[in-house]
Design a protein that fits this description.
The structure holds two protein chains of two kinds. By secondary structure, chain A is mostly helical. Chain A has one domain. Chain A contains six helices and two strands, in the order H-H-H-E-H-H-H-E. In chain A, strands 1-2 form a two-stranded antiparallel ribbon. In chain A, helix 1 runs antiparallel to helix 5 and helix 2 packs parallel to helix 5. The longest helix of chain A has 63 residues. In chain B, helix 1 runs antiparallel to helix 3. The chains are: A mainly alpha, B mainly alpha. Chains A and B meet through helix 2, helix 3, helix 4, helix 5 and helix 6 of A and helix 1, helix 2, helix 3 and helix 4 of B.
Chain lengths: 265, 107
């Protein structure tokens, strides 16, 4: 999906807000006109219109309630995207540099040292590199997951804005049609259909979004398990290097854990 | 086994200290990364009300905290490694100054 700026997301939410204002104005106009028609229409027609208007009022109330719930916490995708980038730029990138550094530096030590301590030291490195690489994989995953969620939130609101535009256009037409007294009953009926259709579209979009997010975060759930699994993090902790095996530089203590100079014999 | 020259011994000790410095630098770096990770808070406000219902915010916070914690543990391990290498270099150097290697002919 194309990238979007903070301004574009704000503007998208403003568009949603403006569409809702249009929809409210059109529905108010339709009720005004229909209420006037109620007084003019013959009893049979006006009773039917009255029932239709009661249904329409309920469906519209449901529509506005659902949208208000969504707007209460629309999400903030620019914040998600910015965090995604920081995970990679400030942690994932630098830590993969450390992994590379460890590899080359070990070769450097081998040129100078050998013996039990050098071996013990060298044996600590693979676990450290594996742990570092696992952090890199986690930050890669956090970056891609947060970006996907940000795009998903944007896509949800873009789709809602389209549905609201369609609804606003339909309701505008229906409220215009209600201007003539005889036009009011079919217009109110059509408005009920438009509203119910929009409520269904919004509910479907929300369900789709929820499914999408659930799929996207599956990887994060797996990653959480990796971070607590035994490899590369024993008992969920950073692998401990047994430094006592290579901290001994002295021959005087009489043990065999010392560092020996590699004379390349 | 060939006996190393004084320069070779000094170079080897220098390499050991260089290795310790590398771990010290890495400890500083992972600590900074841990601070960054701990500050990358995201809440239901960011993930949306629907995202919150799916539990994204709590899952994210859990992973975020684990990464931050692991990086602090990495810092401790890297610092200990640096300390051990420096200590070994120091002891080796002292033995060298006291001619222990020459007397035993073990380097």
């Amino acid at each position: 999906m194309a990238t979007f700026s903070e301004a574009e997301f704000r503007s998208l939410l403003d568009t949603v807000d403006n569409r809702l204002t249009d929809i409210k104005a059109s529905s108010d106009r339709l009720f005004d006109r229909s209420n006037r028609a109620l007084a003019l229409l013959p009893a049979g027609l006006s009773d039917g219109l009255h029932d239709t208007l009661v249904d329409l009022r309920d469906t519209l109330a449901k529509f506005f309630t659902e949208i208000a719930k969504l707007l209460l916490n629309p999400g903030w995708p620019p914040g998600l995207k910015s965090a995604a980038q920081t995970w990679t730029a400030s942690i994932g990138g630098p830590i993969s540099g450390l992994s590379a550094q460890l590899g080359t530096d070990q070769l450097r030590i081998d040129n100078f040292w050998q013996g039990p301590a050098a071996d013990a030291y060298a044996s600590t490195l693979p676990a450290q590199r594996k742990a570092i690489d696992a952090i890199k994989q986690t930050t890669d995953l956090l970056d891609s997951t947060l970006t996907k969620i940000a795009n998903g939130i944007y896509a949800l609101w873009a789709a809602i804005a389209i549905a609201l535009l369609q609804f606003a256009v339909e309701l505008g037409g229906e409220s215009a049609a209600a201007a003539t007294g005889v036009g009011a009953p079919p217009a109110a009926g059509a408005a009920g259909v438009s509203t119910a259709k929009t409520v269904l579209i919004v509910a479907t979009l929300c369900a789709g979004f929820t499914t999408y997010i659930s799929l996207v975060i599956d990887g994060m759930t797996t990653m959480r398990q990796t971070l607590t699994a035994d490899s590369p993090f024993p008992k969920g902790r950073w692998p401990h290097s047994t430094t006592s095996d290579f901290s001994d530089g002295s021959l005087n203590d009489g043990d065999t854990t010392d560092w020996r100079i590699n004379t390349h014999d | 086994m060939t006996q190393p020259s004084g320069e070779q011994v000094q170079a080897a000790i220098h390499a050991l200290r260089g290795e310790a410095t590398l771990w010290d630098h890495m400890a500083t770096q992972v600590l900074a990364m841990s601070t960054t990770a701990a500050n990358l808070d995201l809440t239901a406000f960011h993930f949306s009300g629907l995202g919150h219902l799916v539990g994204v915010d709590s899952l994210y916070t859990d992973v975020q905290q684990r990464v931050a914690d692991l990086l602090v543990q990495a810092m401790h391990n890297f610092s200990s490694t640096a300390l051990a290498l420096n200590y070994a270099a120091e002891e080796y150097e002292r033995d060298e100054q006291n001619a222990v290697h020459r007397m035993r002919n073990i380097y």
